User: Fold this.
Amino acid sequence: MVFSKEKSEFYNDLTKTIRRHIVKMTNHAGSGHPGGSLSATELLSVLFFEHMNVDPNNPDWQDRDCFFLSKGHCTPVFYSVLAEKGFFPVEELMTFRDVDGRLHGHPCGEHIPGVDISSGSLGQGLSVANGVGLTAKLDGSNRRSYCMIGDGELQEGQIWEAAMTSAHYNLDNVCAIIDWNKIQLDDFVENVKGVKNLGDKFRAFGWHVVEIDGHDINAVNEAFKEAKRTKGKPTAILAHTVKGKGVSFMEDTHDWHGMAPNDEQLEIALKELA
Ligand SMILES: Cc1ncc(C[n+]2csc(CCOP(=O)(O)OP(=O)(O)O)c2C)c(N)n1
Assistant:
């Protein structure tokens, strides 16, 4: 099923708004991670606006779904989605990386509504997602546990220990979202340590696998639905994305992994995202 015309327009507007926040926040801070934030925009927008069972007015509600940003450096997109969803004021986004603010470069689970764990040290999120998935089973709760992982991050051994664990405990309430933008900090993933045959790898670990275009909102929506329908095993959504998506000079390069646009570059980016 595809989104209605109204819904498609809503997501077109929302994802542009979020991409504008990303470039403005990083420009204002003079630092941050725009590349991997722009690649994850559709994935997080559709997840939070269509699927996550959360209440921005009661962020610590016990039976909420949980989301873990394992690639914790991509706070520009995470904070933007949370703010647009109503967890905190949109105006606060411009305090990104302020020493006295709470929107740190990497998310702090204690201080920001909607952020369930602190992250930034790559490789850890899926282990936490498993913990939430397991306790949900023990509690008899329908709570679901989502975790976004970068493709470069898949080089961390802990991810694969966690992947074994999710399957061993039949955690069908756990969903891993791989932002497969093919680029890590300073090169293409295939040049550093490749993640070839990713679908086969996850299947061999006992996972259900859905492979999609991570910028196609309908495909993203269907993938999350399929994950919810899948019983007895965890689901990995392998989302093909473009690092820097939406800003021509940031696309498909590692240059914008951790670099902020200057004022001139911001102006060009905002024109493209108008
Ligand atoms: C354990 C650990 N090692 C190294 C880093 C430094 N680091 C930050 S981001 C990054 C690359 C991540 O690449 P990827 O997972 O593909 O992220 P994306 O392209 O989606 O931004 C690295 C190596 C870190 N944060 N944690």
Notes: The first helix runs from residue 5 to 29.
